Predict the structure.
Amino acid sequence: MSVDGCLSALLTRGLVRTRPAADMLAPSSLLSGSGAPLPLDHARLLSLSNGVDAYGGYFRVFGVGPWSVRDMRRWNAPDGWRRAWGGRADGWWFIGETAWGDQYAYATGDDPLQFDATVYRLDACRLEAEPIAACFADFLRDELARNATAPRDETTVAARRRFGDLEPSVQLAYVPSLLAGGDEDLAHVVELGAREAMTLAGDSYRAVAAVPAATA
């Protein structure tokens, strides 16, 4: 299914919130400092809607500029939340996320002509990456549209019942974090600004990673 067809189907069923179209000729539509353009299918979506969010804001695709779901360039700024991860976020261009802070991203390199269109998901606790789609159109169909209809994660379904719809600027976080031994119980989940949540997650990861492995 094409990007146009997938977005049309989601809109017809009322499963996504859209934004005004992005200007895909603007310099802000490029990826990071390397000058790599977004893949054509990704750019096509943003030319129709400057990012989207689905399932009441629990799944987000970022856009470009101040009127988007979230400005990708600001979100990927090296002096923002990424700094808290001690280099672990390097080599990625983040294009979306879940409400839990799991990030969707492209792997980046120095050569814009060798761009890899594979979409990865990086978990919110460790930023460990797994490929989930060969291209953005597949990601839109298999990840976003599927979760917009019926999320595979039961905790996300339960969280929406508890917290209701979320603004795309907000994430859900366990306090204390799961890495720090917190319980995976919605009673320990709070709403935080996305940048604050990712910074705290990075701090927690570095604190745990700095602890020497237990010895027998």
Observations:
- The first strand starts at residue 16 and ends at 17.
